[in-house]
Amino acid sequence: MAVTTSLAGKTAIVTGSNSGIGLGIAREMARAGADVVLNSFTDNAEDHGLASGIAEEFGVTARYIKADMSKGEECRALIERAGACDILINNAGIQHVAPVDEFPTEKWDAIIAINLSSAFHTSAAALPMMRKAGWGRIVNIASAHGLTASPYKSAYIAAKHGVVGLSKTVALETAEEAITCNAICPGYVLTPLVEAQIPDQMKAHGMERDQVVRDVMLARQPSKDFATVEQLGGTAVFLCSDAAAQITGTSISVDGGWTAL
């Protein structure tokens, strides 16, 4: 039987998707034919405009639903309000950098809540819908830091390692069903937020753009090139396709060779 990458007729919920990686993944889901639900903790005209733009560009249904991923009850309510969830992309995340003994407790709690616990809550709410539909895909956006570590990022690394472990557990619990759960582990991705950091890095290091990108920002990424949000979206679409029906409980690195070192 021929495999297809079409996601027509499926509903994809993407958390943390009004910018950056999440928005890029939502757009690629829509390009593949899925109806999409965008999400973040804000609720303004720009958020809803993003959904309208995706609907018009790709000819799918697109909605924006506000939900604060730091609050478990709002994570679960997001899934319920969407009404359907064939595909769940757990992408929401934040970062803070500090030594362990100086790491603010409130920052630790927020990072664990948004980067890890939210994926538990949304998955728990989505699985009954997927089981009722007889099909489902969960894709958790982890990180190269879900497979390796760096100093001063204890909460982020703990959370992303947890996301990888959660993905394996959900995969085992659904292994005999038409439901898969996998993690994508990006390295450095060229998002608007990262792009905005480049001028400051150039000034701090006294380097030209190409040099600061290669030698500072991508020091640990052997390809010396950023991943793109479109590449991550394409990887997510693949994991949701028929071709990936037997790929579950694994982590796919999109990191230019970082975790090969």
Automatic annotation (TrEMBL):
GO molecular function terms listed in the Swiss-Prot or TrEMBL record: 3-hydroxybutyrate dehydrogenase activity
UniProt entry keywords in alphabetical sequence: Oxidoreductase
KW Signal (keyword) present: no
Enzyme Commission number(s) from the entry: 1.1.1.30
Entries under Gene3D superfamilies matching the protein: NAD(P)-binding Rossmann-like Domain (3.40.50.720)
One Pfam family it belongs to: adh_short_C2
Enzyme class: oxidoreductase
Assigned protein family: Belongs to the short-chain dehydrogenases/reductases (SDR) family.
Protein name stated in the entry: 3-hydroxybutyrate dehydrogenase
